User: Fold these one by one.
Assistant:
Number 1:
Amino acid sequence: MGGPIDGKPRRSAYHRMLTMIEFHKIQKRIAVLLLPVAILVLVGALSPGRPAAAEQDAEQLRSTPNSATFYRDVLPILQERCQVCHRASGIAPLRFETYEQTRPYAASIAAAARDRSMPPWFADPHIGHFSNDPSLFAGQIAALAAWADAGAPAGDPHDAPAPAPWAAIRLAMLSAI
């Protein structure tokens, strides 16, 4: 007993219903999986984006690349982009809070910045701009590379920015003990 057109057996209404139910389950799974992606795309499209790279480069590199120093050029980058993880009680195994802690890793820091493996960021840059993107700007990468290439000079400690907020909180907690 074949079907009306192709000669294949007709499927019962029950089997057709099961097929429809499975199809809808698959559609729901796909929708659930794609919802976070859609939200990320919308957030990326609606975020104000990062400042123009040229503006960031000019702001970050206040000196020529050959005269980059830790306190003036590198420490602000570390505070803004790295110390979220690379600090006491941070999740990274190394601390980059002081010159003494950071200097031995100058070449590694520059290499990780050049190949953009640090700071880690796994969002696709072609999807949009994200307000929480920790990626380094070209000027920041150039400053880290110039500092490492120059032998990682310390510079003047008076050029250092104010400690990052978590450093002040930690100091307050230690003084209370």
Number 2:
Amino acid sequence: MHRHRNGIVLFLLLGLLVAAASGVMLSTAQQASKIGYIDSDGLLDAYAQTLLPVVLNERDRLQSLFDEESAGLDDEAKQALFAEYERRLDEFSQGVERQMIQDVERVLAEVAKEAGVDVVFDARVVYYGGVDLTLEVAERLGLLEQSSGE
């Protein structure tokens, strides 16, 4: 009987440990990260549209320079010069794109922090729940005024 009582005590202690561990896991689950999401394609497309005039102006500037420099050159030299100006435009466009992504990431980090969001996903992978941060990010990037004509 003494042995049986020790087994019951051990069983109760084990049960108590499992309950305590479950409480810790529940407490941790309740402190889980707050999830946010954005329509990254929509944001980047809208932002790119605002930067398109910058890229087009650079293209026009480079075209003018090419026209001046290529006057009087033979076809082979023109092709080489054209390739150089095309490379310059590509580098410029890539720089604009990098800056655009950095701007979106910076603004998104600010908005997420202010909203108490710890993790942000693209809207395509969030099927239920979460906090939509898209409009706030778009507003801070100045995209809403331009699309609504304000």
Number 3:
Amino acid sequence: MSELHDIMLLHRGRVLRLKCHKDAIYGCWIKNTFWERDFLFKTLEVLTPESVVIDCGANVGNHAIFWTGYVKKVYSFEGNPRTAGVLRDNVERNNLNVVVVAAPVGNGERVHMRDTSYLGSDFLPDKSGEMVSVCLSDLEFEKIDLLKLDVEGAEIRTLLGARKLIERDSPIVVVEVHTTRHVESDEVLDVVRTFDFDWKKKVWLKNIGAQLIWKDGKYES
């Protein structure tokens, strides 16, 4: 596990005192900006000060910290206990409007955590796994306006576990897909098109570099 570094970040008129590993997020924060900045500003087109966001695969809080400056509340799910600890520390020391849940998301199955790096972890279905994934539809939320999934291969399981919530609130659903591993974008679309909501307008797919590859019912050129 690499060393944590203290960073001060100016955001929406506040100086935030944060901790982070030396990674892509760190490289942005020391320049007083955010990882996936262009994508994050794109989400502001559909968010308001009364919006509520669920951030699955929150890591140390890059996206959640950005959104706190613009929305009412963020629920951040992070399955890696060590990373979730850093996330919680970043939230609590700055009194941010973020609820941290230290658990992997999925469809209620047992999973085994494969700690790939400080950037993220895979949670693989395993009947003897040490953790149980959270089914989002089993939790009580106010109306959700945006659901973001960056869950390292658990995309389909998490979508199925969130089906009732998605059908209830019809949020924007942002899914990060990996074209060289895990699920492909077409597989995600095959699942969400069975849901009772306007998936063509509500589903955004992005790649690991935060480029939107599907939006408004079509692949981006």
